[in-house]
């Protein structure tokens, strides 16, 4: 169902947000992001992300051309969500999941038993350390927006796993349950 970071800060029901200056008001970029935030909230069935009105702890959406990034869970103060525009908007939804407190589904305790690693982009010590920083919230969710495709991690998959390894095109029921758990 989901992977959450141990000891991550929790938001109090919702996440106030604003746009970085990289997202000009009324621009196509701001309209695109407005729609992606609406899609996220609509899928969850609750206004998780809402416009900031003076809160001290808040998220800032920053449109970048490089790597996407977001701290996991509430950090306190200004917290940046770096994202890129993509066709389906799944990158920004993935980064929003991090901001809520979700980790990569690949760190689920059941995940390593479903794959065989090749020498890839995550060093073994980093993988082991990351596994200890996270805990499962339910069963492994192959459909999670928080799961990296094996190709991006240079993992060898076979059979059914390979057939089910397409990049996520929407959030899963497990993602919804985890977001609601982390924001209630």
From TrEMBL:
Family annotation (InterPro entries): MetalloPept_cat_dom_sf (IPR024079), Peptidase_M12A (IPR001506)
MF (Gene Ontology): metalloendopeptidase activity
Pfam families documented for this protein: Astacin
Residues annotated as domain Peptidase M12A: 11-154
Coiled coil segments of this chain: none
GO BP terms: proteolysis
Superkingdom of origin: Bacteria
Protein name per the record: Astacin (Peptidase family M12A)
Lineage of origin: Bacteria, Bacillati, Actinomycetota, Actinomycetes, Pseudonocardiales
């Amino acid at each position: 169902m989901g992977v959450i970071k141990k000891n991550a800060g929790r938001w109090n029901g919702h996440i106030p947000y604003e746009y970085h200056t990289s997202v000009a008001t009324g621009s196509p970029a701001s309209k695109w992001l407005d729609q992606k935030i609406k899609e996220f909230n609509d899928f969850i069935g609750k206004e998780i992300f809402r416009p900031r009105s003076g809160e001290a702890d808040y998220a800032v959406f920053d449109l970048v051309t490089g790597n996407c990034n977001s701290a996991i869970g509430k950090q306190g103060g200004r917290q940046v969500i770096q994202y890129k525009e993509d066709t389906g908007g799944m990158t920004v939804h993935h980064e929003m999941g991090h901001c809520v407190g979700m980790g990569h589904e690949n760190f689920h305790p059941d995940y390593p038993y479903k794959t065989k690693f090749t020498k890839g982009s995550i060093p073994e010590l980093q993988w082991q350390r990351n596994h200890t920083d996270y805990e499962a919230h339910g069963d492994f969710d192959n459909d999670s927006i928080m799961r990296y495709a094996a190709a991006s991690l240079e993992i060898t998959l076979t059979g059914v796993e390979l057939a089910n390894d397409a990049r996520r095109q929407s959030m899963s029921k497990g993602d919804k349950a985890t977001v609601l758990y982390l924001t209630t």
